[in-house]
Amino acid sequence: MADILVLIPARMASTRLPGKPLAEIAGEPMIVHVVRRAQAAGLGPVAVATDSPAIAAVVEKSGTRAVMTRADHGCGSDRIFEALGKIDPGGAAKVIVNVQADLPTVAPADIVAALKPLADDDVDIATLAAEITRSAERSDPNVVKVVGTPAGPSRLRALYFSRAAVPAGDGPLYHHIGLYAFRRAALERFVTLPPSPLERRESLEQLRALEAGMRVDVAIVDAVPLGVDTAEDLEAARALLGA
């Protein structure tokens, strides 16, 4: 799998929980937990793309490569693209996996699952979702839903992403998990596109890809990993991971 590169964008300037990549969980910074889970997936080399010397120092101390990037990136995709150019200027990596730095409980098997839709040559970007089982999440605007049509076993072709409870009517709703696997050419195209109208309206950058006609497929997994956005989430992660 030498053509797969896993990149973790990490920054200190979180609005709701500043400095969260360095928040301690079970005796280690959160970013180290994410790195180890990405490495356990066994897909290929793992590196962290960051604008913070403090994050870079912690990552390198753990034995993993850190790549310094600009501080003015608007999204994680832009940050990993800059890092990609520094790590692999020759273009050996054909698939780039973007793992968020605030997913300390993400299952390595789910990171692997994100690659499965790319077995279809028509798919540009692959991502993850899990069926919503808690009724409160159906109307929670912080829970992003993916609307898709079946494209195979445990797989959807994404038609739309929304913060609203969509689609209407009877049937399951799916909680989108912000972990992406890009074909290199798709990432290169995506970062050149301007923010799209629906992206601006929903504040969801993945809509930029759909509005540009790119195909995004979704692998359905069993559960949503805990994303750490608030102090309460951090305490929940500490409880789950043992301290």
Brief digest:
By secondary structure, the protein is α/β, with parallel strands linked by helices.
Keywords, please?
Spore Coat Polysaccharide Biosynthesis Protein SpsA, Chain A, 9-stranded mixed sheet, 2 domains, 9 helices, alpha/beta, 243 residues
Outline: globular
Supply the CATH class of the largest domain: Alpha Beta
Fraction in helix:
25-40%
Distance between the termini: 35 Å
Which strand order do you get reading across the main beta sheet? 5-4-1-6-10-7-11-9-8
CATH architectural grouping of the largest domain: Alpha-Beta Complex
SSE string, helix = H, strand = E? EEEHEHEHEHEHEEEHHHEH
What does this 3D model show about the protein?
- The protein has 243 residues and is of the alpha/beta class.
- The chain has 2 domains: 1-103 and 228-243, Spore Coat Polysaccharide Biosynthesis Protein SpsA, Chain A (Alpha-Beta Complex); 107-224, Spore Coat Polysaccharide Biosynthesis Protein SpsA, Chain A (Alpha-Beta Complex).
- Helix content is 30%, strand content 26%.
- The chain has helices at residues 30-40, 53-61, 76-87, 108-113, 135-138, 184-190, 197-202, 206-211, 231-241, and strands at 4-10, 24-25, 28-29, 46-50, 65-68, 95-98, 125-131, 145-152, 155-162, 174-183, 216-221.
- The strands form 2 sheets. A 9-stranded mixed β-sheet has the order 5-4-1-6-10-7-11-9-8, with helices on both faces. A two-stranded antiparallel sheet has the order 2-3.
- Helix 2 links the parallel strand 4 and strand 5.
- The longest helix has 12 residues, at 76-87.
- It is globular and about 50 Å long.
- The termini are far apart.
- The model has no long low-confidence stretch (mean pLDDT 95).
